[in-house]
Amino acid sequence: MRRLELLRVEHRDLDSAISALALAGGGDQMQIARLKKRKLRLRDEIAMLEDALVPDIIA
To answer: 30 CB contacts (<8 Å, ≥6 apart)?
Structure first.
């Protein structure tokens, strides 16, 4: 599950980058929006991979 860990690291890095740009104040709003979209796509991909790892067990 190396792919899952890489996605999580990239997600955290994007979070840091978005925060840094927002705090800088003069950040390009389009760039921030693109980073946020990328972060959402990563979150969805992470969730999909995690769901594939956990089997559906009806108790």
So the answer is: none
